[in-house]
Design brief:
The chain is built from 17 helices and no strands. The protein has a single domain, classed as Growth Hormone, Chain: A (Up-down Bundle), CATH 1.20.1250.20. It is globular, with a radius of gyration of 19 Å. α1 (3-27) packs antiparallel against α8. The protein has helices at 3-27, 29-36, 40-48, 50-68, 70-90, 94-122, 127-152, 161-177, 192-200, 203-232, 238-241, 244-266, 268-288, 292-306, 309-320, 325-354, 356-380.
């Protein structure tokens, strides 16, 4: 098999496993809250603190990727995640669970960042299409994960069982990744100071960074709190509520398959505007839905709206920069992590004070901000990045 194609399969498999383990905590959140006897604010800490591990993983990539290459670093990330998932499943004290989740997120940050660097170094002809395809594999894992949780979550004290399965899946992908034989020679780059100076002068870099902070904030917060929201606010049972993130990610998968085909043709900024407009309408429908069927449809359409935003923003940034790509991708991942931490904690804090309905309304506010950024990118003519 061609090594470029093989890297695509390794990257996609890594993202499939990534999507599987990242959705477990949110899907099992009602059971974790019950079993550990924690408040929504504590749950917000569990969901938000691991993102700082994700940031550390992105920083590790920034420091070591020039020496090791993205391919060996990806294998290291997968084995570290496998070990931390085993730790999570063994945790029986809340703060041990939090620490183990943070450690897992270090490996997750490495995976996301090294895959982005790998795509940029291989230089696929259609960068946006390649990134959307790889991210669609994340959606497959995210779709399957909540159904696995629902199947195994017969009682709240079984919350840890899906993490064991995630550990085994991660190990399988790790062994697959070690067969990758793409060579890597450290490139001769400008000084880091000069590279960062270049990035700070690029408007497209700042728009992408702000955009990903906002997007990952509302995507992760909506995904993480969706089960708890439909359980507490909409009155759906615990086992059925755990499936709702899968419905969201079914929409994300459909949208990423579609956006992988159309973003390079329509233009990145126009695609971003289209997706954020759909997101805002569908989340309003989630907030005001009165029947379970309307809620299901609105959640799936929300996923379609969320689908291509992250890879499209990343493609805008990669295609809009002529230098410092590795540094930009690492900072991009750091901004994404900060957005997730901020939004997850904010939704939990708002939920404790005003109720989870208002917490999800905060998610809508973030989507409106993303919509404004898409309009700014349209005005700047960022669709030229498709050429």
């Amino acid at each position: 098999m061609d090594e470029r194609m093989k890297f695509g399969l390794v990257a996609s498999s890594s993202f499939l496993a990534f999507g599987f383990w990242m959705l477990i905590t949110g899907s099992a959140l009602p059971a974790i809250v019950s079993e550990f006897n924690i408040s929504y604010k504590d749950a917000g800490i569990l969901l938000s603190l691991p993102t700082f591990g994700f940031i550390f993983g992105a920083i590790l990539c920034m420091v070591f990727v020039q020496k090791t290459g993205p391919f060996k670093l990806l294998s290291f990330a997968l084995i570290s995640v496998s070990l931390s998932l085993a730790w999570i499943s063994a945790s029986r004290v809340f703060w041990m669970l939090v620490i183990a989740s943070v450690v897992m997120s270090v490996g997750s940050g490495l995976i996301e960042t090294t895959v982005g660097v790998g795509v940029s170094s291989i230089r696929y002809r259609r960068t946006g299409g390649a990134l959307n395809f790889i991210h669609s594999a994340y959606a497959i894992g995210a779709i399957v994960s909540p159904f696995v949780v629902a199947l195994l979550l017969t009682t709240s004290d079984r919350w840890w069982v899906p993490f064991v399965l995630a550990c085994l899946l991660s190990l399988m992908v790790f062994f697959y990744s070690t067969s990758l034989k793409i060579g890597w020679s450290p490139s001769i780059t400008k000084s880091r100071k000069r590279e960062y100076g270049y990035l700070l002068r690029q408007p497209v870099f700042w728009l992408a960074i702000i955009g990903v902070f906002v997007y990952v904030g509302y995507e992760v917060a909506f995904t993480s709190w969706l089960s708890a929201y439909v359980y507490d606010v909409k009155g759906i049972t615990m086992r059925l509520s755990s499936i709702f993130p899968a419905l969201l990610w079914a929409g994300l998968f459909i949208g990423r398959v579609m956006s992988g085909a159309f973003v390079d043709r329509l233009g990145y900024a126009y695609s971003l505007l289209l997706l954020t407009s759909l997101s805002s309408i569908s989340v309003v429908a989630v907030l005001f839905s009165r029947s379970p069927m309307t809620l299901v449809i609105a959640v799936v359409i929300s996923g379609i709206g969320f689908s291509g935003v992250f890879p499209t923003l990343q493609a805008i940034m990669i295609r809009g920069l002529s230098s410092a790509i590795n540094e930009a991708i690492s900072i991009f991942s750091i901004a994404a992590s900060l957005g997730a931490a901020f939004a997850n904690y904010a939704v939990g804090a708002i939920g404790d004070v005003l109720g989870l309905g208002w917490g999800i309304a905060f998610v809508l506010l973030l989507i409106v901000i993303e919509l404004i950024l898409a309009l700014i990118l349209m005005q700047r003519g960022e669709k030229k990045c498709t050429t």
